[in-house]
Amino acid sequence: MNCEELLRQYSSYPGVWDEMCDTGQIRNHYQLVSEAVKQVDVATLQQKDRIASELFMSQGITFTVYSDNAGIERIFPFDILPRIITGREWDIVEKGIQQRLKALNMFLKDVYNEQQILKDKVVPANLIASCPNYTREVFGIKVPYDIYVHISGIDLIRGADGIFYVLEDNLRTPSGVSYMLENREVTKRIFPEMLASNKVRMVNNYPLLLHDILMQLAPQQISNPTAVLLTPGIYNSAYYEHTFLARQMGVPLVEGRDLVVDNHKVYMKTTYGLQQVHVIYRRVDDDFLDPLVFKPNSALGVPGLVSAYRKGNVAIVNAMGNGVADDKAVYAFVPAMIKYYLNEEPILPNVPTYELTNLEAKEHVFANIGNMVIKRTNESGGYGMLMGNKASEQEIDDFKQAIEKDPRSFIAQPIIKLSTVPCFINNKFEARHVDLRPYALCGPQGIKIVPGGLTRVALKEGSLVVNSSQGGGSKDTWIVD
Fold first, then answer.
1. Residue 354 CA, distance from chain mean position
2. So what's the pLDDT on residue 62?
3. What is the pTM of this model?
4. CA-CA-CA-CA torsion for 351, 356, 357, 361, nearest 10 degrees?
5. CA torsion, points 363, 366, 368, 370, in degrees to nearest 10?
6. DSSP strand pairing (354-355 vs 410-414)
7. Computed from CA positions of residues 83, 86, 92, 94, in that sequence, does the dihedral angle turn out positive or negative?
8. Do 186 and 56 meet the contact criterion of CB atoms below 8 Å apart?
9. Cα 116 to Cα 435: distance, rounded to the nearest angstrom
10. N or C end of the chain: smaller count of CB under 10 Å?
C-alpha cells in the first residue's frame, strides 16, 4: 500500500491542535514532507523504521528505567516522521525563552544575595524558606558573570489554541540533548533528500557552543583552561549522554574520585600527575557534590569543592542552588519575576498554576479535581503525579490526604490537551501528543538557543505523559523557514 492512502486516513483527536492538519487540510509547512511521504510505500517506511532502531541500538543510545525489573537498559523509542515548526513560530519561542532565562538568572542572583524580590513581597519569603532546593550553603557566592543557568531545557507545550506555553523550567542538570543530536543524525541517514529540500536549520553545533561557553567561564585569564564533565558514573540513567557530550566537546569525562581539592583549587589526577581544573560541567546533583558540605556519605562528589567554588578558583556549570528556581511552586511566580526585573510582559505564558498553600485555590482544585493534574513540586520524570481524569477514587483520596498534610509540596494545573503530530505506528499514521524541550545556552556573550530541541512523544494512544521513563519516545524537530 502507498502512503498517500495512509495520509488520507490520518485523523487527529477532536478539540486538539494538530500540527500537520487543520480541518483535514495539510498545513503549508508540512506540504513538502507530505508530498515526499506520498511517493513511498509502507514497506519502505517500515524499512526506514527498522534502520533507525538498528542505528540507535548499534550506537548504544539507551536510557535507564529504575522501576523496571526486566532489565533496565532500554533503546530510546524514535518516531521517524519529523515534527515541523515554522521559523516565524520559532522566533517567538526563542525570544520568550531568552526573556525568561534573563529573569530567572536575575532571580537566582537576588535570592542568594540581597533578596530584594522577597523584601518587596513579589515572591513570598516563606515559599523560598520552605523550598528543599534552596541551598543556604552557597549564599553570597559570586558566580562568574552573574550567570547561574548556563544550560537549560525549558519544557513547552502547545494548547488547543495553538499557543506555546511553558510547562516547566529545568535549570539544574537538564538531560536529553544527546537524543536531539542523535535524532538528527538518524534522520540524515533515512531521509537525506527530505532534510535538504526543506532547508531545515542546523542543530549539530550545540557541543561547539557549549564548549565555547565552558572556556569563557574559566576564572583566570589563562590561554588554555581545562574543563571536565563530572558524571555520577555508569549507573546513572543519562550516562550515555555524559559520554556523548564529553566526546563531542573533547573534554575529559571524570568521576568524583578523579578530582581532588588542594589549597582551594581543583585538580584532576592524570598519568602525568595533578592537572588544575578551571571549569566543571557537572551532571551530579547538589546534594552529592561535596561531602564536607552536603551529604557526608556521598562518594560521587569532591571533598572541598564548595570552598574552591567560593574562592572563585573553579566555575561550576550549572551553578549550585538552581533548584530553587525550577521548584514547581516557584514556577507560578516567573511571570511576576519578568515584570519585576525586566519591566516586560511575558512573551511565553505559563500554564495556569494553583499553589495549594492558598486555601481558596485548594478548595477550587478539590472541587474540580477531575480536570486537574496534581504534581509534586520537586519530582520530575512524570513521577509523583495525578491525572485527575484517569485516577481512581482511591488515588484521588490518597492525594487529597497528602495535600492536606503538606500543601507546600504540591501544585495543580488544569489538564491541557497537548498538541498532536503524526507518528508511524503499527504501519499507520496516528496522532500522538507531544511536548518540546528546546535547549538554551547562557554565556558571557548572551543566550543562544539551538533551533529545534527534543520533541517527546506520548506513544500510548490518548496519553498525555511524554516522559521516556513512562513509555514516551522522541522525534526529530525541524525548524523550517
1. 22
2. 62
3. 0.93
4. 80
5. 170
6. antiparallel
7. positive
8. yes
9. 34
10. N
What pLDDT does 77 receive? 87
Contacts of 389 (CB under 8 A, 6+ apart): 370, 371, 415
In degrees and rounded to multiples of 5, residue 253 shows phi and psi of: -95, 120
- CA nearest neighbour of 265 among 312, 221, 218, 317: 312
Handedness of CA 128, 293, 109, 255 (dihedral sign): negative
Strands 279-282 and 227-230, by their bridges, are parallel
Q: Are strands 372-376 and 385-387 parallel, antiparallel or unpaired?
A: antiparallel
Distance CA 419, CA 13 (A): 9
* Alpha-carbon gap, residue 86 to 228, rounded angstroms: 36
Q: What residue spans of 30-154 are helical by DSSP H?
A: 31-38, 42-58, 87-111, 116-119, 125-129
Strand order in the sheet with 227-230: 253-254, 227-230, 279-282, 315-317
CA distances from 181 to 7, 205, 478 (A): 28, 9, 12
Rg (CA), the chain: 23
Read off the C-alpha cell for 236: 546513572
- Name the grid cell of 426: 503499527
Task: Give the rounded distance of the alpha carbon of 47 from its chain centre.
Answer: 31
Closest CA to 284 of 255, 244, 249: 255
Query: Phi and psi dihedrals of 151, rounded to 5?
Result: -130, 125
What are the start-end ranges of the E strands in 403-472? 410-414, 420-425, 428-437, 439-443, 446-449, 454-457
Residue 175's φ and ψ, nearest 5 degrees, are -115, 175
List % helix, strand, coil for the chain (3-state, nearest 5): 35, 25, 40
Instruction: List the beta bridge partners of residue 458.
Output: none
Give the residues of the chain that fall short of pLDDT 70: 62-74, 380-383, 469-470
Contact assessment for residue 79 and residue 475, using Cβ atoms and an 8 Å cutoff: yes
C-alpha to C-alpha distance for 470 and 67, rounded to whole angstroms: 10
Closest to 466 (Cα-Cα) out of 479, 453, 478, 475: 475
Q: How far apart are CA 407 and CA 355, in angstroms?
A: 8
- By DSSP bridging, strand 227-230 and strand 454-457 are unpaired
Q: Is 380 left (phi over 0), alpha (psi -120 to 50) or beta?
A: beta
- Are 264 and 312 in contact by the 8 Å Cβ rule? The answer is no
Contact present, 126 and 346 (Cβ < 8 Å)? no
**Within 13 A of 161's CA, how many CA atoms are on the CB side?**
5
Contact 78, 52 (CB under 8 A): yes
Amino acid type, 108: L
Q: Give me the amino acid identity at 152.
A: S
pLDDT for the residue 63: 60
Q: Which residue has the cell 516565524?
A: 88
